[in-house]
């Protein structure tokens, strides 16, 4: 064990401070003036999520334990008991082991037993044990030192037994000091078996395998990051050029996108079927012999079933795309005209193409702030200790697994108050160890401790405030729910602000171009009007979306918790509720989007704009919905073509299929990871650019329908439509 010469003195000071704090509690209560002057700080500590903790809740590698970055488990075989621990006791924690855990400077590099002569060389004990305490047998009986030391290696801050696979089905032996191998025993006096160790560290061994894969993925990203950035830059340039060219070549480019999409699906279908036939012939005409999940992508490429599934899916998509083009050919002509008009509107307001990057930055900031708040809330509260171990042993001394306990009283007076039912005698900790009872008081989580006296802490405050603080402490999930709600609200608010600003730009283009011309700073003017006059409209519209989202999330959480305890009828009810809430959220988003357009036109409030938008929707349901969705589909095809083109180019590059770039291809373990990042990033970039077009289409469509409504009410109304739009809507141009 690593020596700490000031450990004993530190614990004496800590004990004296605790006694002094308890006796002078009233004297230490701050006055309001002192509380206001005191420097404030966050109560949570995100380091709890990054570093391991010992049995007392101390964070290894930080503070006074900065030189002890690893945690050592006294007896890994007790971790097997975890498999029988109820879920309610685990408190959603992935790994809780009912054995004492301490922070150490380094993991032991050799195996030993407390009866061996070399045990003191790397002895691991609790912090109050000094180098002068040499009665190892008594220390082990009292639970202050580990009965055995196993050669370990660090894994995520935990000391995990080395070469665990080679120890399976074998008895652990180590030199006893006389260079003679002797059997090592666990804390229950049983020979230490490699299979028990493997079962005890199974969870962390799985993490070790994932870590090895993660290391290779990080190496791939480190090697290929420059190529990923180049692909992102290329996708931004192609998206920009696509939109610029749509001003003059809207129809050809859209038809090129449609034809390219259909041809791409046809090529994928043909290649997949061809690969399937070839692999099936090489596989004795069998589609699949065996299937298993592996990390090597080449394994899946060699299976005929993989290419069969790809061929079927791409064939179905090909059939659907062809039917849509044939059935909605006339609607496509209308949509193409609106797209062409939208391209002109975007060209008039060139700087609006760069606007989506501002909401993107806001979204990143909101997400980062929400993530930080969530981490602080998750780590706020007091250390909670719970009883862990064997349930039958706990029952024999009137204890309950998962019950809150006090580690300071555990080894001294806790058991004096608990009587064994079978023999009616009191047991000390060493008596429990001798009796083979596996019961420990270990750190569980940070949260609300019901044993804390809030009345003394909140002394002098109002009754309503005391009730509120007590309620929040007893239900610490409420701040997390509020944090999630604010995240939904701010996200929806950012989307609403972006839509209203763009709607203001294109509404001004539609209505003012004949009389006042298009101002060069229309984007800045629209942003100014949105911030100064319409923040309330955006806030209320986004509030409705946030409430519906929160209800959906809470419903899904409740469904997950009671999934194993409900029948088919309850699951059907949950499914129907989720479906209804999903449809409601989609409709409200669609209504809000059109309400923001009406607000940009008339400057009206949310309710008035929503009412007018709803009237437009129900007055022209087929024309509005079909044309709007057709335009969305055509815009989606543009995004898909760019994404597919960049993705195919990256695939050919990373698989050494471009001879001219052969010398520049990096060596990767899994080329699919950078390829997926390129595809996802390209789609996000294209979505940012094409979202401007989508809003231009919706705004011009609503403005045109509103223009037609005004003409129906007033025959003398002069429409502001362009010639192309008048031709689409069959409106005669007024002289």
Automatic annotation (TrEMBL):
Keywords, ordered alphabetically: Glycoprotein, Membrane, Transmembrane, Transmembrane helix
Biased composition (Basic and acidic residues): 1-10
Principal location: membrane
Ranges that cross the membrane: 225-246, 253-274, 305-329, 350-372, 481-506, 527-551, 595-614, 634-656, 668-686
Lipid bilayer topology: Multi-pass membrane protein
Residue span of region Disordered: 1-41
Record-linked Pfam families: Choline_transpo
One GO cellular component term: plasma membrane
Membership in a protein family: Belongs to the CTL (choline transporter-like) family.
Name of the protein in question: Choline transporter-like protein
């Amino acid at each position: 064990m690593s020596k700490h010469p000031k450990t004993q003195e530190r614990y004496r000071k800590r004990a004296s401070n605790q006694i002094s704090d308890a006796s002078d509690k009233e004297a230490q209560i701050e006055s309001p003036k002192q509380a206001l002057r005191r420097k404030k700080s966050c109560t949570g500590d995100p380091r709890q999520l990054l570093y391991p903790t010992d049995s007392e809740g101390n964070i290894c590698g930080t503070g006074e334990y900065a030189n002890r970055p690893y945690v050592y488990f006294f007896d890994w075989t007790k971790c097997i008991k975890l498999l029988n621990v109820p879920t309610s006791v685990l408190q959603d924690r992935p790994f809780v082991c009912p054995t004492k855990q301490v922070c150490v400077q380094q993991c032991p590099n050799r195996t030993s037993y407390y009866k061996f002569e070399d045990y003191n060389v790397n002895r691991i004990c609790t912090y109050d044990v000094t180098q002068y305490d040499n009665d190892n047998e008594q220390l082990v009986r009292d639970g202050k030192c580990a009965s055995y030391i196993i050669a370990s290696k660090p894994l995520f801050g935990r000391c995990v037994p080395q070469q665990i696979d080679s120890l399976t089905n074998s008895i652990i032996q180590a030199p006893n000091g006389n260079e003679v191998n002797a059997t090592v025993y666990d804390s229950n006096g049983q020979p230490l078996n490699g299979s028990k160790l493997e079962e005890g560290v199974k969870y962390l061994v799985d993490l070790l395998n994932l870590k090895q894969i993660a290391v290779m993925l990080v190496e791939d990203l480190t090697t290929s990051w420059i190529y990923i950035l180049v692909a992102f830059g290329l996708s931004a340039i192609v998206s920009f050029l696509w939109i610029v060219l749509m001003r003059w070549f809207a129809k050809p480019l859209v038809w090129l996108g449609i034809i390219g999409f259909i041809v791409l699906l046809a090529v994928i279908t043909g290649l997949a079927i061809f690969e399937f036939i070839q692999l099936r012939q090489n596989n004795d005409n069998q589609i699949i012999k065996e299937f298993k999940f592996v990390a090597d992508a080449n394994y899946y490429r060699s299976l005929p079933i993989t290419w069969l599934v790809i061929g079927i899916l791409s064939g179905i998509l090909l059939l659907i795309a062809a039917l849509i083009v044939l059935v909605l050919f006339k609607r496509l002509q209308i949509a193409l005209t609106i797209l062409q008009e939208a391209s002109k509107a975007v060209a008039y307001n060139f700087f609006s193409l760069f606007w989506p990057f501002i909401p993107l930055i806001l979204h990143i900031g909101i997400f980062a702030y929400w993530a930080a708040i969530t981490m602080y809330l998750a780590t706020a509260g007091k250390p909670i200790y719970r009883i862990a171990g064997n349930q039958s042993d706990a029952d024999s001394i009137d204890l309950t697994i998962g019950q809150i306990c006090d580690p300071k009283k555990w080894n001294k007076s806790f058991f004096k108050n608990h009587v064994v039912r079978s023999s009616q005698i009191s047991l000390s900790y060493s008596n429990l160890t001798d009796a083979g009872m596996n019961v420990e008081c270990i750190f569980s989580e940070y949260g609300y401790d019901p044993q804390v006296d809030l009345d003394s802490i909140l002394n002098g405050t109002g009754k309503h405030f005391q009730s509120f603080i007590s309620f929040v402490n007893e239900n610490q999930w409420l701040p997390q729910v509020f944090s999630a709600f604010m995240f939904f609200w701010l996200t929806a608010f950012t989307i609403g602000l972006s839509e209203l600003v763009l709607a203001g730009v294109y509404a001004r283009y539609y209505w003012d171009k004949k009389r006042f011309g298009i101002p060069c700073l229309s984007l800045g003017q629209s942003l100014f009007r949105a911030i100064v006059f319409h923040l309330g409209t955006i806030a209320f519209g986004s509030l409705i979306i946030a409430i519906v989202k929160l209800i959906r999330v809470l419903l899904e959480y409740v469904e997950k918790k009671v999934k194993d305890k409900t029948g088919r009828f309850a699951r059907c009810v949950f499914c129907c509720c989720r479906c209804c809430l999903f449809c409601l959220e989609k409709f409200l988003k669609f209504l809000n989007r059109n309400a923001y357009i009406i607000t940009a036109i008339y400057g009206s409030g949310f309710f008035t704009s929503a009412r007018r938008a709803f009237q437009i929707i129900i007055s022209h349901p087929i024309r509005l919905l079909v044309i709007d969705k057709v335009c969305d589909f055509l815009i989606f095809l543009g995004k898909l073509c760019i994404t597919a083109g960049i993705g195919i180019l990256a695939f050919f590059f990373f698989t050494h299929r471009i001879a001219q770039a052969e010398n520049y291809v990096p060596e990767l373990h899994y080329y699919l990871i950078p390829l997926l990042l390129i595809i996802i990033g390209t789609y996000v970039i294209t979505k940012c650019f094409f979202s401007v077009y989508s809003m231009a289409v919706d705004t011009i469509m609503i403005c045109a329908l509103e223009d037609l409504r005004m003409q129906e009410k007033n025959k003398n109304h002069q429409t502001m439509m362009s010639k192309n739009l008048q031709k689409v809507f069959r409106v005669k141009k007024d002289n």
